[in-house]
Structures are given as C-alpha cells and as structure tokens.
Amino acid sequence: MTTGATDPLFDDLRVADLRKSHGVKWGRVTGDVLPAWVADMDFPVPEVVSDAIGEAIRNGALGYPDWPDGNPLRAAFAQRMRERHGWEIDPAAVREHTDLIQGLQLLLHLATSPGDAVAVQTPNYPPFLATITTMGRRRVDSPWKRTADGWEPDIAGLARAVAAHDCRVLLLVNPHNPTGRVFTRDELGEIAALARRHDLLVISDEIHAELTHAPHRHIPFASLSEDTAKRTVTLTSAGKAFNLAGLRCSVVHYGPPRLLAVRDAQPPDLYGTVSTLGVAGTLAAWRHGAGWQARLARVLDRNRQRVADAFGEWAGAAAEPPPQAGYLYWFRADHLGVSAADPVAEVLERAGVLLDGGAGFGADGQAHLRLNFATGAAVLEELLARLGALVRR
C-alpha cells in the first residue's frame, strides 16, 4: 500500500494518458509494459513554465533574441547559486549549452586530446561513459564501495587510479547517478585535495543538486575553495528538477579562465545555441517554481521510502537504502531473483517492466538495475506489484 499523503497534481496520472505522450520514456514500450528506466518524470510541467513559454510565443519571441548584456541565464544562475548555496560566482563565467552531454563533449574536445586519461567513478551515467570512449579518451574507472550503511565513494581507490594512469580530468557526478548518493563536505574536500595534487581539471555534473532529500544538502564542488574553483567546470540545468529535458537548455560555469578563453575563441555558433523558449522556461522555473518544487520534493520523498520499504521486504538487510537525492533507485538484480547476465531483458520479459541497468553503467553495473520512481502513487504500486511477483516466483 502507498504510504504518505497523495497530491493530485502528481498522483492523478492515468496510464492511458501517459502512453499517448511523445517522450522516449513511454514511446519505447508497447502493450501493457510499464517503463521505469530513463530519468524522466511522469509529472506535468510546472504551470509557471508552460505559462512563460506560451507568453513568449504570444509576444513574438520566436525571432532572433536581443540580449546585449549576454544570455539572461547567466545572471539568473549566479543568483540561484548565491541564494541556495552561498556560492558567489561571476555571471561572466557562465555559458549555455543544449544539455550536459554536449557540455562534457565540448570540454573534452577543448581540454584534452585522444589518448588522455579521464577518471570516472563507477557505476555512472551511461552517456557520459560512452562519450569518453567514443571520443578516444582513456576511461579510468574507479568503483564505488557498497558498505553496510549504503554506497560510499572509494576516494583512496580513486587516488590510486588517478596516479597509476596519469589522469588529466576527473568527471565528478554530484549528487551521484545512479546510486543517489550525496557527497559530504569531507568527501568533497578529499577529492579537491586529490585534484590539487595531480593538477586535475574537474568536470562536475550537478544536475541532480536540487533533488536532494533532507537532511542531506548539496555542496557545489567549486564552492569549496579558490583553488578548487579555478580547476572546476560545473554543468547543470533545470531539466531534472523541473522535468524540462525537452527544452534542451543547460548552463556551464567555467572556473578556469584559460579554458573559458579557449571556449570563447571558438566560432560562436559552432556548438549550437539554446533557444529563446528554453531560456524562458528555465528562467520561469528558477524564479517562480518554488511551490511546485516543494510539492515535488514531498512526493519523491514518499515514493523513495515506499520503494525502499518494498525492497526491504524482498531482500532484508541486503536491500539498498533509499537514495539521498533524485528519483532513481539502484539495486542488485538478485534482489528480484533475476540473473546478472541480462537483467533488464529478464525483468522486461518476466514482469512487463522496463528498467535500466547492466553493463552500460560500467563493469560495476552489470549485476544491477535502476528503477525510476518519479511517477504517481497508483502507477508506482503497479510497478512494485509486478516486481514483487518476480520475487515471490
């Protein structure tokens, strides 16, 4: 049974309506299969965002934008970092990209060469891992540790990997995807010291930062110290926290002045530009979406506890704790009684549920699955019922 209060804005979802959506999440399934794989929420777009986009269209904002002082996202992002985290940044060091993957690819293109080593903590977001490999960089995996208390970053192991492979770059995912772990200040301090010793460029993906669950708090990596800021590029977007991935709009804060200068020396439109509607939607979310986001936080907290309780019933003490951030639950495939060979395909065939997981998350992900629980209460209950039937069989 569902625990916690329901919210009609997020819980009054009909599967028949979701199946009519044009997004990839529901578009990749057929029949009565339920999707819980890609990191898209099933919830409606915040009304303030749809209103802002509609108003922009009505006001003729589809022509060339006039931003003589630079894209307004820059100042808005700086203000948000100051208000939420006390992190003071110069808007002049912020740039825009369509999404985080494009930002990562541009940074690797500008700051590294084929054959250079890039350290990454695994398991990790599959498009990031694939980017490093397809761009011809040497991917150096550093596995996380699973302890009795949950997932922990193996910073000593990361230090050994960086030293052994002469890494140039560290790709940091904070909060972490897929484990949902939020780094502590002490852990980030150890990573910053490691970056300083080895003169690493740190590319910090912080797109899940606004989805942390109390009492955990996100700390921007670049906010730790002046040295850390000067070697860190921060990637983020309103896409995850407000369900706006389709707007294709993200921001990048360039800590290293030299790297920003290299970036700005490129032809201005070579790597694409964000649309005026993406800017309008993002600004509306940041400026007026607090109420929607607060309600979302309560629903996600309820759902993560419900998922963790269900897995606790199925796997006992071996079950993973609820994620500290986000809406993704990472767990061992054998909790459902499925094999590690191809757990995604097995769950799809036997339960009619499409999850994510497996080797795409790195070698450490082979025997694991990822469940997206950002959906209405009734849909989540049906998902868990189908997964629970696997366990009982």
TrEMBL record:
Q: Which cofactor does it need?
A: pyridoxal 5'-phosphate
What EC number(s) does this enzyme carry? 4.4.1.13
Source taxon at top rank: Bacteria
- Show where the Aminotransferase class I/classII large domain sits: 43-387
Q: Keywords of this protein's UniProt record, alphabetized?
A: Aminotransferase, Antibiotic biosynthesis, Lyase, Pyridoxal phosphate, Transferase
Nucleotidyltransferase: is it a keyword of this entry?
Answer: no
Q: Which Pfam families does the protein's record reference?
A: Aminotran_1_2 (PF00155)
User: Is Transferase one of the keywords?
Assistant: yes
Could you cite one Gene Ontology molecular function of this protein? transaminase activity
Q: In which family does this protein belong, per the annotation? A: Belongs to the class-II pyridoxal-phosphate-dependent aminotransferase family. MalY/PatB cystathionine beta-lyase subfamily.
Could you tell me what this protein is called? Answer: cysteine-S-conjugate beta-lyase
Classification lineage: Bacteria, Bacillati, Actinomycetota, Actinomycetes, Pseudonocardiales
